[in-house]
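Fold it.
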Amino acid sequence: MGVMTTTPEPGPPGRLRLTGYALLEVLLAVPTLALFVLTVVGGVAAIAWVGLVMLYVSVPASRWIADRHRRFAGRTLGIPVPSDYRRPREGAHLVDRVTTWARDPMTWRDLGWALASMTIGFALSLLTVLLLVVIVTGGFWWYGAEPIMRARARLDLYFLTYGHTERLEQRVQVLTESRAESIDHSATELRRIERDLHDGAQARLVAASMSLGLAEDLFATDPEQAQRLVAEARSTTGAALGDLRSVVRGIHPPVLADRGLSGAVEALALDMAIPVTVEHDLDGRPPAPVESAVYFAIAECLANTGKHAEAAHGWVDLRHRDGVLTAVVGDDGRGGAEPDRGTGMRGVMRRLSAFDGTMRVSSPDRGPTVVTLEVPCALSSPKTTPSSGTA
């Protein structure tokens, strides 16, 4: 599943702003050249550790520069430009990360873009700057800046984003990988549940059974001891029930089954240390697996708000439009959230990817942070009426 970190786009850029983009692109040509050389040399030397280290530095830095050009191109042409990079698996080591980058077609597109950017792209951007700085009348700049920068933007997009057919092919590949990852995750969860049942409820029930057996033998000779053993068995049985409830909650929380997604999210909001407003407009219930995945995804987002955001207020908005269930989780905290840093947000990606879902994060410095979760699905017959309130 692709994850896009987005920020609000300004209106159509004027000529001065386009010239500012051109100046930045000219300045970025030097580090682009250095990183291109470092990446090529690192790829050749990847058989040794020094080559892997070089790639570990050069590839993320090159992608950062490429993302800046995607943003310039998107603003110039007025269209969204996702990065479409494949993400290394959670906890991947150096070799695994480099392998993922090498298998990512966008990595090779970046290399091709670097060559075009340092030659044709550099000439177009430099020409835009020179038209303003050198040409005295300014007429050439007035009429030429916009078409030149649009040509530069289209050149960048040719390399830095997929076409429709290529995007579909990549989407199929990503879905295949995400399905395999979800299967592995499900197998891991199954082993965890089996371990929890074996070490928890099963062990307590065995102890309760032994206590009851001893009590049965002692009823005739030592009734007081037998009663104590029965009391211990009762206590152990209660603890076993508690273990079973904990296991069940980790699979499908009872509040989700009883009250649906909207009610379950309201219950989550009530447990938050800050006020969280919940608004929803769902005229039915999504399929149980989707409902569970979205619930746990929202729970993780709210947990991050409580732990890291330093927010005074949060909100959750649930909507279903045009066959897509959308959950927007936001807060007025300090911002700066990066989904690739924590395992929790990666878990959210993994949960949603099994249902062809997506996650977008907008979190500029000083906030607000807004996480948008989208999962295509149909809703069942209505169960609750739309409402809104502050939990």
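Residues 164-218 form the longest helix (55 residues).
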